[in-house]
Amino acid sequence: MPRHAHPCGADFNRGRPCRGQLIRILKQSRPNSAMRSILAVSLIPAPHWAVSSHARAFSHIFCLFWFGIWYEMCENVHMISSQRQHLIVSRLRTRGAVRITALSKELGVSAMTIRRDIAELADKGLLKRVHGGAVSTSTLLSEPLFSVKSQMDIGLKDAIAQEAVNYVQPGDVIAIGGGTTAYVFAQHLLESQQASGITILTNSIPVAELVQALESKDVEVIVTGGVITRSNSLVGPIADKVIASLRVNTVFLGTHSVSIPRGFLMPNSLEAATDMAMMDIADRTVILTDHTKWSSTSLSLFARFDQVDTVITDDGLDPDSAAKTRDLVKELVLAQQIETPDESE
């Protein structure tokens, strides 16, 4: 039987040149187990009496074709990873923060893959990792949008809010500051029995809208007025003047960052001044903040530790920070974290 020339100019009965080429590629790459098995079978030369040289030639060409496609896909993995990371950085520039679950759905990859991308970007100093996502390093000294922050650390805010409700009694006059943690607290409070007959002073537009939507005659809301910030808070001289004319039992405030031993900070100096005005009219000050705020920084100090009665955070706070904070404030409460479907992925 005449021998048929190998497409690459080699004797295909033995197939040594082609097999040698595949073996070299295999050594340079890392095929998965399934592809490795397929390639191994294709590299075994068949006896000359088992199949025709045409069949052998076809099998080797078929193998090379699919191996080429697989190899190209492997080469594209690095390109796709860099594209994902570029998109993550781009989203952070426009939004200030991103969530793992949202990126996973948008890019069609697993949450674990997004976590690895975020970890690599964090190592490069391009972002800051937070529970459930990441924030841009450029937002650490500026106030992110309310809509952005409301999607971050939902389970932590729920846990903190549930604890904070216990600090309100029916008929109380309270003040609620701006920010998403304070907003979640207002949601839980209005769903509880403690909301009966209360009056809420707030400089938060979302909190005011929340109370208004209830159309309840049992809850009264007073809005300060003032200049609107990126976090949908009302600040400035008008707000401060209205606040100074009132008196409340307890004020509940969020914070952008916690600095030991300095205190509690905000990125907006006007917002910091309005928070101080609320503290001045309150018999008791309660700070609501999740554990990630201990690792960030901001511009304006609005409260020292000795000016705060209670700090409510989640149990994700590291033991060292918890011990130092407990030494500086009258009361530190660690709320048990509530896992949400979005944040468990």
TrEMBL record:
Gene3D superfamilies: 3.40.50.1360, Winged helix-like DNA-binding domain superfamily/Winged helix DNA-binding domain. Pfam families: DeoRC (PF00455), HTH_DeoR (PF08220). Residues 81-136 form the HTH deoR-type domain. It comes from the Bacteria. SUPFAM superfamilies: NagB/RpiA/CoA transferase-like, Winged helix' DNA-binding domain. This is DeoR-type transcriptional regulator. It comes from Bifidobacterium gallicum DSM 20093 = LMG 11596. Keywords: DNA-binding, Transcription, Transcription regulation. One of its GO terms (molecular function) is DNA binding. InterPro entries: Carb_Metab_HTH_regulators, DeoR-like_C, DeoR_HTH, NagB/RpiA_transferase-like, Tscrpt_reg_HTH_DeoR_CS, WH-like_DNA-bd_sf, WH_DNA-bd_sf. The keyword DNA-binding applies.
